[in-house]
């Protein structure tokens, strides 16, 4: 249990450093500020329970409910479902993903998943497997194998 607490502390410090870095960039322009705000809205939900169909911190989130909520809180309107979010987003190549961009996965024959990038490698998402909002890496074998694209509403 102590190891998990240490990992959480390190992750929290890394995220804090990222937000400080992004907020420093935010002073140079509106888009950078919007990216920093969007990432902060997503990260604020870490640990919130996964609930299928959930769209708020009070009831919990599913994956697209989290991205829908974070965008809404940052002043952006996007579609509600992961598939619709991908269709409507402006495509972004994987090697060009930035904080605030979205990443899309196909996890089953008719099942899609979405997350919100927090840096060039990690994303925050509502994980049904872990039953909570959490951070994962695009480089893990599972997420790499299921990745189908990136997109953004920030332009």
The structural class is: alpha+beta
Strand order of the largest sheet: 3-8-4-5-6-7
Shape: globular
The average pLDDT is: 88
Low-confidence stretches: 5-10, 22-27
Secondary-structure arrangement, i.e. CATH architecture: Alpha-Beta Complex
CATH topology: endopeptidase fold (from Nostoc punctiforme)
- How far do the termini sit from each other? 42 Å
Q: Can you tell me about this structure?
A:
The protein is an alpha+beta fold and 155 residues long. The protein has helices spanning 2-26, 30-43, 63-73, 82-88, 141-146; strands at 55-56, 60-61, 90-92, 102-108, 111-117, 122-127, 132-137, 147-152. The strands form two sheets. A six-stranded antiparallel sheet has the order 3-8-4-5-6-7. Strands 1-2 form a two-stranded antiparallel sheet. Helix 1 (2-26) packs antiparallel against helix 2 and helix 2 packs across helix 3 (63-73). The longest helix has 25 residues, at 2-26. The chain starts with a helix and ends with a strand.
């Amino acid at each position: 249990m102590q190891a998990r607490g240490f990992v959480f502390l390190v992750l929290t410090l890394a995220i804090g450093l990222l937000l400080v870095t992004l907020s420093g960039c935010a002073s140079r322009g509106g888009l950078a500020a919007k990216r920093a705000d969007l990432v902060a809205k997503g990260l604020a939900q870490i640990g919130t329970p996964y609930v299928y169909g959930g769209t708020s911190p009070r009831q919990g989130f599913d994956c697209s409910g989290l991205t829908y909520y974070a965008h809404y809180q940052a002043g952006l309107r996007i579609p509600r479902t992961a598939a619709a979010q991908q269709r409507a987003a402006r495509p972004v190549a994987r090697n060009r993903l930035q904080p605030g961009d979205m990443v899309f996965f196909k996890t089953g024959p008719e099942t899609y998943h979405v997350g919100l990038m927090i840096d060039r490698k990690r994303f925050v998402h509502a994980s049904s497997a872990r039953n909570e909002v959490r951070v994962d890496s695009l480089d893990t074998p599972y997420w790499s194998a299921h990745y189908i694209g990136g997109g953004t509403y920030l332009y």
